[in-house]
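Quick one from the shared queue. A colleague (R.T.) flagged L,D-transpeptidase-like protein as missing a structural entry in our internal table.

Convert sequence to structure tokens.
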Amino acid sequence: MPYIIVDLSDRTLYLLEGNRILRAYPVGIGKILTVTPVGTYTIINKVPYPYTRPGGRLTPYGTFWMGLSRRGYGIHGTNNPASIGRRVSRGCIRMFNRDVQDLARRVPIGTRVIIRP
């Protein structure tokens, strides 16, 4: 079964199977005051989002959300691609929309997510 490692120091999310890296994606992480929590979690839900809400407003989570077992935190897309690679979120892990959709197709609910410093 695949699993995920998020390396906060290099702001990269790795999808692995065994010791083999299947994919590596750049990510945005939590600001200094709202850091991304280190630990081991699981993906508890997967929710596709429409790109816009009624009235044309962009959704805050890009095109996809994967909730983590730590309440209020998740891996999601963004409508601000310039935020990827930076410390900008409230603790969530931001990905390019195309990357979060690719990852969501590859991992089931229950996938282990290790976030390390």
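The helical segments are 97-106.
The chain has one domain: 3-116.
Added to the table.
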